[in-house]
Amino acid sequence: MQKVPFTEKRFLTTLIFVTSLFALWGISMTMGDVLNKHFQEVLNVSRAQSGLVQFSIFGAYFVMGIPAGLFMKKFGYKKGVLLGLSLYAIGSFLFFPAANAASFGFFRFALFILGCGMSTLETVAHPFMASLGDQRTSDQRVNFAQSFNAVGTLIGPALGSYFIFGVDNKGGGLDSVKMLYVAIAIVITLIAISFSFVKVPDTTDPHVTADLPTDGLNKDTAPDKPLFAHTHFKCAVVAQFFNVAAQGGTWAFFINFATEKMGFSNEKAGYFMIVFMAMMLAGRFLGTYLMTFISPNKLLATFAAGNVLMCLIVAQDLGWISFIALLMINFFFSIMFPTIFTLGIKNLGKRTQQASSFISMGVVGGAVLPFLMGLVAVHDVATAYYLPIVCYAVIFLFAWRFSAPTRQ
């Protein structure tokens, strides 16, 4: 049997750039989790209210999912990337007046605009990456790119722990938050300007071409069938909702668990969050390798079952045993987002971009669970980790019963 290539030489430069985009929203995603704890102390908001940090970010995904997909469909991948980077930079710049006003509402608005940029980048980058080669290796490509998203999630808590906890623990203000996000905005602006001068080569998108000869490409196997008549797509939207709900809740209260149950300082807890994200990076690389001989849906089901067990252990409040289980949640979480995404868009042909928008909208789940976990965490943060078990059970059922659409 002929080995299916990871990508083609003509896609290599594009693949490298698109892969780099995955790190950008990873940085902001985990910075939000640091802000969650910081706002509790500096702006005197409750845990339930601090969960609205994630609501602002993930709510933007729900609002921006379809518009980003329509924009991408009309103007193409490059302009879609530039739109995402522009919104990302604007949201980051808005942290300057938000900090000056010391307004939690203003910060949430800035995070919403930033989240719209993140949503646009994700909507563009996932189908873009999946299209850069044979469809049979699309899961491997997206998981590979998501590994660099995991690198971004390492950088986020590192920056937050040093500049927000490390500095503000001494001064107690918002100046370091303001300056950090302005610096991020400047960097993103420079990236956007640089990319605007890049000539992206014309390539044939296998997602929108129905008559390409390569058997492994993402052909539409039922062109007369409505998008929402595809069971695998509908289930992927639901699974992604619960997946990001679990992620948002687990990440949002990691620092609370570390400080309350383990007795760590904010700064030390922030550095342990780097280890937490490193577990996800390790899981992504291992998962990408394992998919060369284990079907993606079966591996996804295994990892989901692992997280059901880890959440049960965390909720028992067993000291270091529970804390290690908390770290392992991110290891098992690692492959979930990209694998659900690529399973959901398989064999949808020209409707892949539209499907990507709806799957990205499923990210709104991350706006829901942090708030619910915050209500429980007011009484006991360990007990709050019972809630993600429902999410991982749904993901397990999606993966275990997944049936790829048959070819005509």
From TrEMBL:
Residues 14-407 form the Major facilitator superfamily (MFS) profile domain. SUPFAM superfamilies: MFS general substrate transporter. GO terms for cellular component: plasma membrane. Pfam families: MFS_1. It is found in: Cell inner membrane. GO terms for molecular function: transmembrane transporter activity. The lineage of its organism: Bacteria, Pseudomonadati, Bacteroidota, Sphingobacteriia, Sphingobacteriales. This is Sugar MFS transporter. It is a multi-pass membrane protein. Keywords: Cell membrane, Membrane, Transmembrane, Transmembrane helix. The chain crosses the membrane at residues 12-32, 52-72, 81-99, 148-167, 179-198, 235-257, 269-287, 321-345, 357-378, 384-402. The keyword Heme does not apply.
